[in-house]
Amino acid sequence: MKNIWIIANWKSNKNIQEALDWVAKVGPQISKEENLKVIVCPTFSALSEVKKAIQVGNFPMLIGAQNLSSFGIGAYTGEEPAAILKQFADLAILGHSERRKNFHETDEMVAKKVEQALANSIIPLVCVQNEETPVPKDCNTIAYEPIWAISTGLTNTPGAGRADTPEDADKVAGVFKQKYGPQLEIIYGGSVDSSNVEGFITQENIAGVLVGNASLDAEEFLKIVKACEEI
Ligand code: PGA
């Protein structure tokens, strides 16, 4: 049975109390299924409390960071190194298009972040924007997120802010598998919600979803998880 990753990317949202309220609602409802990987990615400042809440509740969830430093421990003011983040994070979203756009992250920086993550046993989840985005060495999990499909409409192109079709996303995922090998797991992201999630996760080459806006609401996120559990 293939893995199904359901990853909540909260971006710069939720203070600690809001984060804990969400975990208290979502955590007890998730079934313990080996292939279901539910991961919540809060802001850095909420990681510690969210981790504690998940441990205390014994919820079958993992925790992700939304970024990490391309450097190690040392004199890098304002950066969060993987060697410290590993206390909390099982996974890190790397090279998200919002970071590439707003913080000028390059493929080279993303490759360095992947190295840091792997050296610290954090799963790197590299966001690729199209077939041309390189997948760094030894990275086995990627998220295909066409920039125009992100719900906040990062581009001004017509149709921006709407999900890709499951068929198209599957085709792109297939191209990545051909290029990098069958071990690569490809997650789709961009305007996923409870009404369209099933279409994506039932595609042959797609192993889950990265959910931004629709993950902020506990009820809506639970609907997405339930839809995946029923497959
Ligand atoms: P969205 O965001 O679900 O709000 O489109 C996805 C993402 O940016 O990871």
TrEMBL record:
Its EC number is 5.3.1.1. Keywords: Cytoplasm, Gluconeogenesis, Glycolysis, Isomerase. One of its GO terms (molecular function) is triose-phosphate isomerase activity. Signal peptide: none annotated. It catalyses: D-glyceraldehyde 3-phosphate = dihydroxyacetone phosphate. One of its GO terms (biological process) is glycerol catabolic process. It is found in: Cytoplasm. PROSITE patterns: TIM_2. InterPro entries: Aldolase_TIM (IPR013785), TIM_sf (IPR035990), Triosephosphate_isomerase (IPR000652). Homodimer. Belongs to the triosephosphate isomerase family. PANTHER family: TRIOSEPHOSPHATE ISOMERASE (PTHR21139:SF42). This is Triosephosphate isomerase. It comes from Candidatus Daviesbacteria bacterium GW2011_GWF2_38_6.
